[in-house]
Design brief:
By secondary structure, the chain is of the alpha/beta class. It has helices at about 15-30, 45-50, 70-75, 75-85, 95-110, 130-145, 155-165, 185, 215-225, 245-255, 270-275, 290-295, 310-315, 330-340, 345-355, 360-370, and strands spanning about 5-10, 35-40, 60, 90-95, 115-120, 150-155, 175, 205-210, 230-235, 260-265, 275-280, 300-305, 320.
């Protein structure tokens, strides 16, 4: 039986956290000896995810969170090295960008014979990067990709880009399906769920994500404030450091009666199935899990061009579109136009989401892992 350790910072409420737990469970059910090696134990959603995971997944905590993610990871690196030395593994799988380098470093310092697998969950090359920072970031990833045994990307578009930028590691890049969509997400609702006490017949726009600079929730709120559709409500699910700033912005714009921010929700299907539109204004993403869940819920999507597969996935689907001009007035107009279109079941949304089912995603990971 192959032993695989998934290295993860901690289990919070992001998409990468959910995918890490789904993947760990799927690998355990497929017969792998699986350890979820968590650097910190105090994740906001750990209790929820643990209840949903396969009982054969082993949980190991290396310590407690004391400061920032980067400081915690490097502080606990010696503990990770000791664990790897004491627990020989066949595969070390980094679950996301911020664990890639540390997984490789832990393997080298422990002198482990385990194969090291990276996973890219956010863009390696970003539009906003420039100057010395961009050069150092590219140089660092060049070294890392060449030393890793395999790098899993989340789309063919990203795969193609990374092969061009890092040609010496081109043979080590493989795209993989992320496991995320459940049968419950795909279940067709005869009636829209009643959420947040919003009156029946009112239009609902939903967005989901952490309140941090990457998600650019301020742009969404500013755009919604310019929307002229009557009886329309915006619901933003999530928590984060900038939530207070966004609440102040809602107050300044005078739209408190039309905006709800209820915090983190472990199950978002009801919100998406009740929504008339999902809007994402992120600056950058890898392959947003919530986009897949919105498609599974038959919810039309407007998104910034924030992930490499955005055009590939959304452009062919009726009711979905990219926000080409990222200013509040233009976004408000696109939201207005989208809300005027009649809502109807879309087989293309369902078919796209089905590709990212948990079963397909786990099977694809196993196929790629077994090439090692």
């Amino acid at each position: 039986m192959k032993h695989i350790a998934l290295l993860h910072y901690r289990l919070d409420n992001g998409g990468i956290d959910r995918v890490a737990t789904l993947l760990a469970s799927g690998l355990a059910k497929a017969g792998y000896d699986v350890t979820l090696l968590l650097f910190c134990r105090d994740g906001s959603a750990e209790n929820i995810y643990r209840q949903q995971m396969d009982e054969n997944v082993k949980f190991i905590h290396l310590g407690d969170s004391q400061s920032s993610r980067t400081k915690d990871i490097f502080r606990l690196l010696p503990t990770a090295v000791r664990w790897i030395k004491a627990n020989p593994t066949d595969l070390l799988l980094s679950t996301c960008n911020n664990m890639n380098w540390i997984s490789l470093l832990a393997a080298k310092l422990s002198q482990s014979n385990a194969k090291v697998i990276f996973k890219t969950t956010n863009p390696i090359v970003r539009k906003d990067d420039s100057g010395l920072y961009a050069m150092l970031r590219k140089w660092g990833y060049k070294i890392a990709f060449e030393k890793a045994d395999l790098t899993l990307t989340l789309s063919e578009a990203e795969n193609k880009e990374l092969k061009q930028i890092f040609p010496n590691a081109a043979h080590k890049f493989q795209s993989v399906i992320n496991p995320y969509v459940t049968d419950q997400m795909l279940a067709i609702s005869k009636h829209k769920p009643n959420i947040a006490n919003i009156p029946k017949g009112h239009k609902i726009i939903v967005s989901i994500g952490r309140f941090e600079p990457q998600k650019n929730m301020e742009l969404l709120i500013q755009s919604f404030a310019k929307l002229t559709v009557e009886n329309c409500h915006l619901i933003i699910l999530g928590d984060g450091a900038l939530k207070g700033d966004c609440e102040k912005l809602v107050h300044i714009l005078g739209i408190e009666d039309r905006v709800t921010m209820p915090g983190f929700a472990p199950h978002v299907s009801d919100y998406l199935k009740a929504a008339d539109l999902y809007v994402m204004t992120s600056r950058y993403e890898g392959l947003p899990a919530v986009i897949l869940e919105a498609l599974a819920s038959n919810c039309p999507i407007l998104s910034t061009d924030c992930f490499l597969a955005a055009r590939e996935i959304l452009s062919p689907i009726a009711g979905c579109a990219l926000l080409e001009n990222e200013d509040p007035g233009s976004i408000a107009q696109m939201m207005h136009d989208a809300l005027q279109k009649p809502s109807q079941p879309s087989q293309s949304m369902r078919d796209t989401a089905q590709r990212y089912s948990i079963e397909n995603g786990v099977a694809d990971h196993i196929q790629k892992i077994d090439t090692l």
